[in-house]
Design a protein that fits this description.
heterodimer, A: mainly alpha, Four Helix Bundle (Hemerythrin (Met), subunit A), 2 domains, 6 helices, globular, B: mainly alpha
Chain lengths: 171, 332
């Protein structure tokens, strides 16, 4: 019961704040709404008893990445009103198409999950020898998901090198 | 219901009031210690030896007019002090002042990460205060603050990884228990980590010699230039509450939390008659005194020096420390 109330309250907050992110006139206001959205998502993780994920969500997104956003926004756009687009509807067909595809995909996922019985959920490859949320996650990352984990880190490295190459023309 | 709602609430109320009272007396202690370091007397007028200055200052701040600049962003200007204060207070939830569950609000299994992540939210107060003031010095200060906090956060978090490897747990209670089992405080096993966390802690609380965001001489007070009255007091409260948090974290991680000195030597068991929370608060006081001592001793860094130390010295040392700790842990 309490979980349901918490879930719906948080969902309303997340969606409302996410709408504020894209509608706020002032860029700094929308970045602050984004921080609030991330914090509410972290609270949602806590409701799902994924407290490690919640803490990492706050640490990485709310505490690190959005600070950099704010940094850039403050440097680039100090008190200047946003520019109006000449034709705000110029991409409306593409947007509608993408939204429709997204809706179809979500409907497909829901239909697929209902078509499978709950017992057929695949069990992990072997019983993990560790207890607790964080330990379990670490165990999975270094056994079953080792290659995706390493690939993700390589991807980050590639992005970093790419950014440096783009920024420095003389390289 | 009583165990899950009532007692935690009572503990939270007691803890928050204790923090606020200790902040007021921290300001007095700081003024006194700096005065002694400089062969002055410090505050002497209010009460015997000026002890009531700690009460007089907050009363003055509450009674002062609370000014909002005409060109400021009203919402953000009001929100900023709150956003810097709340994370500083939330962190106290996971700090164990004693072994018994009576002495802490919560023992969550990601306690240390919780502290790191919640304190990383506090920087928004400073950034938004500088931006919302719509004034050039606060804006410069908030840019400095965001750059500084992000750089030092990386070093501190990397250092904490080596400590987690030593302790084998993220829970704050678990870390102290690990020190009891090891029979030695982690400050002696990880001295490099202690120095790194101390430097990083000074930088993250904007204390001298890293007080660039509020450098009085060059930024006229920095991000809180435009603030007055109670909202200025909130920033003040947040800074000192953060100092208390950092000292508590250092005590838990490196100086054995509530443990007595030499926890493995039975001959000193008589020291157990001193309650655990007394040890904790005594150690916390020592670390806080160290902070004030450093402020009275060291001149402020130049901004480029500050960034160079963060990125080119602290982070490589932190990474090397993690690698060495991991290797030693595997070999033993």
């Amino acid at each position: 019961m309490a979980e349901t109330i918490a879930f719906y309250t948080l969902s309303v907050l997340i969606l409302g704040l996410a709408v504020l992110v894209v509608t706020a006139k002032n860029t700094v206001h929308s970045v602050v709404s984004l921080v609030m959205t991330f914090l509410c998502v972290a609270a949602l993780y806590v409701v799902l008893e994924a407290e490690f994920l919640a803490v990492i969500q706050i640490l990485v997104y709310a505490g690190g990445i959005v600070v950099l956003y704010l940094f850039v926004v403050m440097l680039v756009n100090v008190g200047r009103p946003p520019e109006e687009h000449r034709d705000p509807r110029r991409l409306s067909v593409l947007g509608l198409g993408l939204a429709g595809a997204m809706l179809l995909e979500v409907a497909g996922i829901v239909a697929y999950s209902y078509s499978r019985s709950t017992s057929s959920v695949t069990a992990p490859a072997g019983p993990s020898p560790v207890q607790g949320n964080t330990e379990e996650l670490g165990w999975l990352l270094y056994t079953d998901y080792l290659i995706p984990f390493e690939l993700a880190s390589v991807l980050l490295l590639v992005a970093m090198v790419g950014a440096i190459v783009l920024a420095r023309r003389d390289l | 219901m009583i165990d899950t709602v009532f007692w935690p609430l009572v503990k939270i109320v007691v803890l928050l009031n204790a923090v606020m009272v200790s902040v007021t007396f921290m300001t007095l202690l700081e003024r006194k210690v700096i005065a002694w370091a400089q062969s002055r007397l410090g505050p002497m007028r209010v009460g015997p030896y000026g002890v009531l200055q700690a009460i007089a200052d907050p009363i003055k701040l509450i009674l002062k007019e609370d000014i909002t600049p005409a060109k400021a962003d009203k919402v953000m200007f009001t929100l900023a002090p709150i956003m810097s204060l709340v994370p500083a207070f939330v962190v106290f939830a996971v700090i164990p002042f004693g072994a018994d569950p009576f002495y802490y609000v919560a023992d969550i299994n990601v306690g240390l990460l919780f502290i790191v992540s919640v304190t990383s939210i506090g920087v928004y107060g400073i950034i938004l205060a500088g931006w919302a003031s719509n004034s050039k010095y606060p804006l410069l200060a908030s840019l400095r603050a965001s750059a500084q906090l992000i750089s030092y956060e990386i070093a501190v978090t990397m250092t904490l990884v080596s400590l987690i490897l030593t302790a084998g747990t993220l829970s704050m209670v678990g870390i102290v228990e690990a020190q009891q089992e090891a029979g030695v405080w982690f400050g002696f096993i990880q001295p490099v980590a202690f120095v790194l966390v101390l430097i990083g802690g000074l930088a993250e609380t904007n204390r001298a010699p890293f007080d660039m965001p509020e450098a009085e001489q060059e930024l006229t007070g920095g991000f809180h230039t435009e603030y007055s009255g109670m909202r200025f007091a909130l920033f003040f409260l947040a800074e000192y509450a953060n100092m208390i948090v950092i000292s508590a974290v250092i005590v838990v991680l490196f100086w054995g939390g509530w443990l007595r000195p030499f926890p493995s030597v039975d001959a000193l068991a008589v020291l157990d008659y001193i309650p655990q929370w007394c040890w904790f608060f005594f150690k916390m006081f020592m670390v806080l005194y160290l902070f004030i001592w450093i402020r009275a001793t060291l001149p402020r860094y130049r901004y480029d020096q500050l960034m160079r130390i963060g990125w080119k010295v602290l982070i490589p040392i932190a990474i090397a420390n993690v690698v060495i700790t991991a290797v030693v842990k595997v070999l033993l």
